[in-house]
Amino acid sequence: MAEEDDARIRILQSLRGKICEAKNLGPVSGPNRQRDLCTFCTISLDQEEVFRTKVFDKSVSPFYGEDFYFEIPRPFQCLSFYVYAKSVFQRELPVGKVSIRKDDLCKYSGKEHWFSLHPVDPNSEVQGKVHLEMRLNELITETGQIGQHLVVRIIECQGLPLISGQNCDPYATVSLVGPARSDQRKTKVKKKTSNPQFEETFFFEVTRSSSYAKKSHFQVEEEDIEKLELKVDLWNNENLAQDVFLGETRVPVKVLRDDHIHKAWYLLQPKGNGSKSKSDDLGSLRLRLTYIEDTVLPSACYTPLCNLLLKSPDVKPISASAAHILGDICRERYEAVLPTVRLLLHHNRFVPFVSAVAALELENTQEANTIFRGNSLATRCIDDMMKIVGKNYLAVTLKPVIDEICESNKTCEIDPNKLKEGDNVEVNKENLQGYVQKVFSSITQSSSSCPPLMCDVFRSLRHLACKRFPGDPHVQYSAVSSFVFLRFFAVAVLSPHTFQLRSHHPDPEISRTLTLISKTIQTLGSWGSLSKKLSSFKETYMYDFFKSFQEDKCIEKVKKFLDEISSNVSKESSGLEDAVVLKEGKKNFYWLYLNNFCFSGKEALCIINVKNIKAVEKLDESAFNRKNMFQVVHSEKPLYVQAGNCVEASEWLEVLGQVSRCNEGRLSTFHPSNYTSGAWQCCKSPSNNEPGCKPCTTTVLANLQLDIDCDRETERIFSLLSSNDTKLQNMEDACASMAVYQGPQREQEDYSKFTIQEPKETFQTLKQLRNIMEELQRQHNIRNDTTAQYGSLDNPIVGKTS
Fold first, then answer.
1. Strand partners, 83
2. What radius of gyration, in Å, describes the C-alpha atoms of the chain?
3. 23: which strand partners?
4. Are residues 351 and 315 in the same domain?
5. Are residues 523 and 623 in the same domain?
6. pLDDT: is 774 or 573 the higher one?
7. Of the four listed, 350, 376, 396, 767, which is most buried by Cβ atoms within 10 Å?
């Protein structure tokens, strides 16, 4: 079994981006109706909503500013962004939508684009696929005539949409359509399922000859075949209301000209390609999208590249290492460093690597007051490390005070040019000062919660800075504060939604308050002379405001805090981490803390100690006729939970599996359905205590905070190297030229972009990378040759539309 899993190829999808703003939104109904309504946006995979912004104030050109990121746990056809308006009766009225087919996402990846909004037409809101079979049969009638029938078998459907949040009641209509005919049949209705099993067969008379003797091997006439087509429509049975269209596909009968039997999966399509109405008056939406699809090969394929990268901290000089070369050739792409950081973190190789890279940067730093201020490989690596390792540290330290600031919503504007009528600047200053004091105290008293790995990095930076500038007494502090204050706490205060401290982008007024707090925290945390701190403000009002903090001895508090997080003294946990919410469910019905999984409903409250969880697995849709359900098996009976959508269900399975993977008494098997009517519905065993009938999912070993898939990260590194092949070649040429030419180094534009200290060492690493990349590409090519057959479940046919 393990060998089979190891040989498995995984297709992993993720989507990151931002819903930026809308422009000139059109009326929902009637002239200028939109001006009276608040709006919000949603994201849907096909027709399943997976993300929703907050509701924004009345505006025809609202600024949303909502970042999003999620793993996509299932195949999908279309990514859609909807703009809705809230009516005075709180009804959600569709304004328009942007739909992008999966195959087109690469066109827009990594950049911002304006998209025109299109009407939301029910006939275009489709998803799913249908499995059908067609064949031609000869039949002899009682009168001796020969006829030919088209036999159509509707086998099943998969992935039909939810209707009003519930599984639909689907049925299919099957029609044979031609110039002078339209014969229709209908399947039975299947109750409460998105994956109906129909298994119904229908017969359609195609043509008929005068006698059996006239043609012993009857063939459908050529002109009939060209004009006939099979049309399959899926509907949701609404009983008392009008049935809802779910999608259609059209198959020309001429596909049987070459094959006696045609059996295939087809994607459902909109009716008539959806609405054709004009959309110029609906406005537009600005989006930034990055869709990534990783084809992850078996682990053994990545071992050579992974090992070469993990050797990087030991390479002398560090600039000749594979990890440094990757950072060098991808310096324009900020996200390129992240997979290397995650890989090094997972294998405990990050601290020696970043220490060597920081030492190299310090060699080229001439003044102590500019230490670690640029966007270098060292600063990018440490930035990414702090975001990964320090996520819960931020939650413990800042979330309570950030929540208070966002929810109390006190006015804190102190810029005379931005004061509103009736504002009292002295009251605003007092409000702002109170907030700053709370944030500042939360930070400077948080040293016991600072993750050990961050402390190790800060200690190394402090040592390197003192060694580089031994005559400067402040550099040991500025080396640390430039990261922990300027690049960590101040940034998190400024954009709490980016660091998962808030679920949505703050309102403009609260954003302004957070900006003022962030500015002050940056200055308080910058270790240096007091005169430099005050002169760092360009605005007079900030200069005057900051002077009120001199008497509080903030500098001494900062120094003490920086000493504590960069010293050799080991710290005990403050115990606050137990209260950190690691994940929160839809509508706050369930939460995961470090020690407990809590579920609340209208009548009951359930708290499960994480240590008592024995398995976390998917639950079959058939158990309760509901999608996106999972089960938490613990010492008592299983807890069955329905997530809001497929993304949320996948995230819960992942995080609960990680926190419980080392528990004693973990189960090796589970029941994928429920126990009802005296038997398990999956295996029909009558015993409630019967061991599971299906093997439990193997949870990959990962630190809870460092949930890292090493194979996926290595595949991303391979993709980055492949896309920068020209730069790698230029670097090879530069090394060869420098190694051969021993005179004064020539200035060449291409060569000056690279850090090459030892050309021979660097050239050797580049050659190793080249060989490994060629072998990995060969492995990909082998796998690409085994693409799923067109018309299979994994590669369905995109049929015609009306």
1. 41, 96
2. 32
3. 284
4. yes
5. no
6. 774
7. 350
SS3 100: strand
Q: Using CA atoms, how far apart are residues 506 and 409, in angstroms rounded to an integer?
A: 10
Residues 510, 399 within the same domain: yes
Let me know whether 397 and 259 are in one domain.
no
The enclosing domain of 626 has a CATH number of 2.30.29.30
Same domain for 340 and 483?
A: no
Query: What SS3 state is found at 20?
Result: strand
Same domain? For 316 and 387 the reply is: no
Query: What DSSP character marks residue 531?
Result: H
> What is the domain count for the chain?
5
- Residues 516 and 534 both lie in one domain: yes
Distance of CA 594 to the CA centre of its chain: 23
Q: Does 218 map to a domain? A: no
Q: Is residue 214 part of a domain?
A: no
Query: Residue 432 sits in which domain range?
Result: 365-566
**251: domain CATH number?**
2.60.40.150
Cα 635 to Cα 616: distance, rounded to the nearest angstrom: 13
Lowest mean pLDDT among 10-14, 126-130, 536-540, 644-648: 536-540
Spatial separation of the C-alpha atoms in residues 339 and 715, rounded to whole Å: 9
* This prediction's pTM: 0.77
Question: What are the Cα distances from residue 582, in Å, to 46, 172, 392, 431, 616?
Answer: 28, 44, 8, 31, 16
**Cα(558)–Cα(190) distance, rounded to whole angstroms?**
67
What is the per-residue burial (b if ≥16 Cβ within 10 Å, else e) of 710-736?
bbbbbbbbbebbeebeebbebbbebbe
Q: Which residue has the tokens 């998962």?
A: 500
Residue for token digits 């101040």?
Answer: 490
Return the structure tokens found at 339: 């997979």
Q: Give the C-alpha separation, 132 to 265, whole Å.
A: 7
Give per-residue pLDDT as tens, 512-553: 999 999 988 988 887 543 434 455 566 677 767 766 666 457
Residue 532 forms part of a structural domain: yes
Distance CA 630, CA 326 (A): 40
Q: Are 526 and 546 in contact (CB under 8 A)?
A: no
Going by C-alpha positions, the residue among 495, 562, 485, 480 that lies closest to residue 525 is 485
Cα torsion 97, 102, 103, 105: sign = positive
Structure tokens at 260: 């006696």
Residues 437 and 560 in one domain: yes
Is 273 part of any domain? no
Band (767; pLDDT cuts 50, 70, 90): very high
